[in-house]
## 1
Amino acid sequence: MENNIYSAPESDLNEKKEYEEIIASRWSRLGAAILDALITIPFSIAVMYFTGGFEYIQQGVEPPSAYTFAMGVAGVLFFIAIHGYLLVSHGQTVGKKLVGIKIVAAGGEALEKVMLIKRYVLYMGLGLVPVVGSFLSIINVLFIFSSSKRCLHDRFANTRVVRVES
């Protein structure tokens, strides 16, 4: 007898996806980035107002490196305060959540904090490279037009962005 009714139950412990992940559209990723920027702009304006950043603009002079660095650190801390919990728990920023997309590990494994750190260090760090930072940032996001729809920061961190199935 093959089926022994008294044998212990068996189960497959390898988790299988019951659905296929659909890569997020370029437009949904752009929409999420715009929403995230709109959340950040009021904070940036307030900080610049209270720290005298607009005075540099009015005078037409470049702010000191220390001021630029401090603003960068404040921006990163604000980003973490607003998006940190959602990123770690769901792989989403506020904009991604509103648009219905999320970050996942490209290989199907669990999304790890180190992947998120690598992703955002490259994403934010490219713009800080003297002289060519803006150019590198543009190259990074132009990779969205590859067949895999993955920017350089996605490739570097081994992540991809997919639609959230409801």
## 2
Amino acid sequence: MEPCSLITTVTVDSPLILAPLAGYTDLPFRTIAKKHGAGFVFTELISAEGIVRKNPKTLDLMDICDTERPVGIQLFGRDPSVMSDAASIVETLSPDCIDINYGCCAQKVCSGDSGAALLKKPDILFKIASGIVSRVKIPVSAKIRIGWDDSTKNYKEIVSLLTDAGISFITVHGRTRAQKYTGLADWDIIGEIAEFSKVPIIGNGDIKSYDEAMHRLGSTKCSAVMIGRASVGNPWIFTGHTPSIDERFDCAIEHVDAMVEYYGEYGVVLARKHLVNYFHHFSNAGHIRSRIVTAQTSSEIRAVLEDCRTQYASFMDAP
């Protein structure tokens, strides 16, 4: 794939981008995704209030490293002043961009008038975006949905406001907040936005394979495509490579090792939700999953994975 430019200061090696996923896109996973071809990676959404108040757990979520670049740090919040203050703090970490979340559909985020709830308050949405753009020197991007519900698909107004605010590029998830993750993402609307937008558009929603990502790139004027849940346990989606059985087990072991190195032994618990996805399509996936989710230590989970590798190879070799 040809490199593409999303923002004037960053050229990405691939137009396939890792989406910010709450509880998933930590530093170990982002590094693995980057190693396997992701052109750009993003942290999970991070509370601006938590940053300004210097909450230790919140600050930990901003940890980035050079091997995952280009990397964006995503913020959510409702107060323009707090968001600008948080962005100023984030800038000191030298991410490649700051991303504003206007798309999260979680009740605990929207009930606080953050995330997708700001689609209903375009004036505040604009103040947040313009305030951050004027406060920092690095590029600022935004992620949106196409509206709050079917009766309020105000994506034209929102894209126009964000462009006027100085946003460098916009990611569009092709669902309303009311849909959450049900139904189908509306790629016709994403394509429409990419046609009229004056800034680059990243399309997002329902990308389950490399081929589908490339189809969406070819059938729209999107500058890039963002891949979320389908990348969990499948970092090869960014290149279209079909991994061998050994490659799957090797990557799973690499992933748990990275989690333990980063989090300590608690990384084993945090790794489970990733590891089960490496083998979800296996004929004996239930057996592997049940052993993974009960492993408690790094040595135990490594032994489980190596034993499952051997058992699966024997199963495949059986007449």
## 3
Amino acid sequence: MEFPSIEKSFRDKICTSISLAPEGIGRFRIFHPFLFDDGDHLSIVLKKENGSWFLTDEGHTFMHLSYTLDEKDWLHGTRQKIIENALSTYNVRDREGELTLSIEDDLYADSLFSFVQALLKVTDINYLNRERARSTFIEDFRRLIATEVSENRRIFDWFDKDRDPKGNYQIDCRINSMRKPLFIYALQNDDQVKDATISLHMFERWGIPNQTLTIFEDQEKISRKVLARYSDVAGKLFSSLGGDNTQRITHFLHEIIQ
């Protein structure tokens, strides 16, 4: 199919405002109205390699995600599954960060429509529903601890089996092999903060030596009164897990567990 026919098929089947701009041999920039949520356009190029045409984002979609997420955050767990499902649904390949879709049987317009849908679905990881966001926070927390603390020094979901055989006062992670073990909490809501407060009071009553690190999913969502009571018994607090706090938490762990 020739260039004018390709452009016409895009306009007839998808949107009249789509246009193609040549950028060298076997390469066309596709101008279109499709946007990320922040207003940036999807980057889509029509290219020819080894006699075959395909669509590519040239790595722009994942680069766009990196503005709000660390790359490691979408390579594991819930986010990774969302991306894999989106790509497989629309037969899009991940070529070391570059997303591509081969054009078959001259179905240029159909392929472009599918490619746009795939790119938008990939960015859905920024808008996980409440349940998925909750699981992602825990996944991210566990992955960070597992990366920074050796397996022989950490115990996830720890509780004192002698004093608390039913696990009523559970800690998200305990770090051992230091004068005072480090109790780490990953807290998401008022109820969890209240439970952690009770647990720390109980450990104090039992005479269990400890130091604490708390990582909130979003500290601003915690009631001021609940947070105030928790602060009376808790040690180091981080208001969230992502962004610059990831590096701060890592630095804190390295300093305290030497």
